[in-house]
Amino acid sequence: MNRELVIGLDLGGTNIKGILLDNCGNIYAKTDVATQAKDGPEAVVRRMTGMVSDLEEAAKKAGSKAIGIGVGIPGLPDQQSGLVVFAPNLGWKNVPILKLLTATVTLPVFLENDANVAALGEQWLGAGRGSANMVMITIGTGIGGGLILNGTLFNGASGSAGEIGHTVINPEGPLCSCGRRGCMETYTSATAMIRMAQEAIKQGNKTCLASKDKIEALDIVVAARDGDKIAAGIVNSAAYYLGVGAANIINLLSPDTIVIGGGVSGAGDILFKPLERSIRQWSLEAAYEAVKVVPAQLGNTAGCVGAARLVLQQTFG
Amino acid sequence: MNRELVIGLDLGGTNIKGILLDNCGNIYAKTDVATQAKDGPEAVVRRMTGMVSDLEEAAKKAGSKAIGIGVGIPGLPDQQSGLVVFAPNLGWKNVPILKLLTATVTLPVFLENDANVAALGEQWLGAGRGSANMVMITIGTGIGGGLILNGTLFNGASGSAGEIGHTVINPEGPLCSCGRRGCMETYTSATAMIRMAQEAIKQGNKTCLASKDKIEALDIVVAARDGDKIAAGIVNSAAYYLGVGAANIINLLSPDTIVIGGGVSGAGDILFKPLERSIRQWSLEAAYEAVKVVPAQLGNTAGCVGAARLVLQQTFG
């Protein structure tokens, strides 16, 4: 048995998650720590290298050693220059993460966007197992996306491919955080669902959501499942527009699998039934027949699993 | 000099075009013939095999022989079953083209959608030369699309990837020929431009287009260039929505090159200036910085050139 061990880190706005895996996907160690981005990039990188030490120690205990480290970045990394070009949730711009990491760490380090590594993780060990052409759509504060094309991660000329949330589905639609109008995420993100709930409450509609101090997207899904009509309307609307955006991707790329991730992806039929209807309505037949739409399976470990996978793909092709 | 010769055929609704090329892109022979699809598939295939004989003869004269035939199909071919699943312009459904062709032809035959081979042609010898990630958008009766990703043609799980014209840019938009609403081609195809001109004339607007018996998209572009305000408005609107659709592709795939093809792609600044503005408005910065938008260079030979290229890619990888 000649198993390669790899380390995957998922640098998030709230937590840094780490994992030690072998090339068959067996987990040897898992760890996480608060990011505390307010302390600045050097402090965050120190936490990451501390995590790497722990995982290398775990590898040693398993009688082996890791061959490389993959890192998922919540923004746009540039492997060539070793920079995190930007990462809004961390407040980072042009942070030389590779230089900071390799001051301590001797293993090769591979950087990739967090939504992309999550897609890679789901394709390796999750809902997209065995898929050659998989698109992952993650419903969160925004809408994240990752593309696996011909079996490997596709990130395009700028490294930023997969920005599904900012494909426009109505140029006269609501204003988006990116400054444009009618981006898919203005209709279907957790933020959009919460905004719709708040508007409905302000307009005096009767809904159980009105009793909450702070509404989460998951609350809306749960209320919809419990028969709350306002909540059901919001979930239906989000699912419908998610379907329009997903169908655009289906018509353009004809993937075999679309994986829906994020907190609300476990909602079941209440989300997936109207989503399926909308996708059917907006997709071309041949591409529709070839695709299945499934919820993600790895939850918030998809990112570090995929970051580890990245090491294997970059090292062995 | 060990040059491989390949045959490319482009089966169109009006003409069948053929070309004999070597692996360096040197042209040895070109030919075309009327399709006359009304005579039925067998007659059309006879015209194709006649063309192949002529091109094989030309290869012999050059002291060599062709190694394979690529065929661009105006619809959805399926290489595995050897069928043209559908080709609306020919009135074909499930036509066993591979069986019909190989009754006469002994060379290996490779089938591909016509927009896809046109993209491959432009990437090999045209406006996308040297591009690794190129998207071709062809403005015609509809909007055709072809994707070159990581240097090779991408056609997805169903073989139908690249249906850019049927990505939706407004789910409440005009009715499309596909039965859906607000597809990109309802705003930006030649058909859409002609429809807008006819509506403007019907509403009594003053335009030089009113004097024409039959308006072509190229007439509208020429009139716009000559200062006709109605025509200029139509070209601006088509360019704007073409930009919205192109930006969606830029945000999703981050290509290095977008090639605009079709009859009006030679229009120059009158089309490309507003298109460029719209793309800038609707694209994410990183992806926008990495892409150039250029007119096609091969005109209506792109298809047979790309069909020939397909043989080389399928044979030698």
- Total count of strands of chain A: 13
State the secondary-structure class of chain A. Answer: alpha/beta
Strand order across the largest sheet of chain A? 3-2-1-4-8
Helix content of chain A: 25-40%
The top level CATH class name of the largest domain in chain A = Alpha Beta
Classify the oligomer.
homodimer
Low-confidence stretches of chain A: none
Total count of helical runs of at least 4 residues of chain A:
10
How many independent structural domains of chain A? 2
β-sheet strand percentage of chain A: 15-25%
Q: Write the H/E string of chain A, N to C.
A: EEEHEEEEHEHEEEHHHHEHHEH
Question: What is the rounded distance between the termini of chain A?
Answer: 20 Å
Task: Name the biggest interface.
Answer: A-B, 47 and 47 residues
Q: Give average pLDDT of chain A, whole number.
A: 95
Q: Give the CA-based shape of chain A.
A: globular
CATH topology of the largest domain in chain A: Nucleotidyltransferase, domain 5
Describe this structure in words.
2 copies of one chain form a homodimer. Chain A has 10 helices and 13 strands. By secondary structure, chain A is an alpha/beta fold. Chain A has 2 domains: about 5-120 and about 300-315, ATPase, nucleotide binding domain (Nucleotidyltransferase, domain 5), CATH 3.30.420.40; about 130-295, ATPase, nucleotide binding domain (Nucleotidyltransferase, domain 5), CATH 3.30.420.40. In chain A, the strands form 3 sheets. In chain A, strands 3-2-1-4-8 form a 5-stranded mixed β-sheet, sandwiched between helices. In chain A, strands 11-10-9-12-13 form a 5-stranded mixed β-sheet, covered by helices on one side. In chain A, strands 5-6-7 form a 3-stranded antiparallel β-sheet. Chains A and B meet through strand 10, helix 7 and helix 9 of A and strand 10, helix 7 and helix 9 of B.
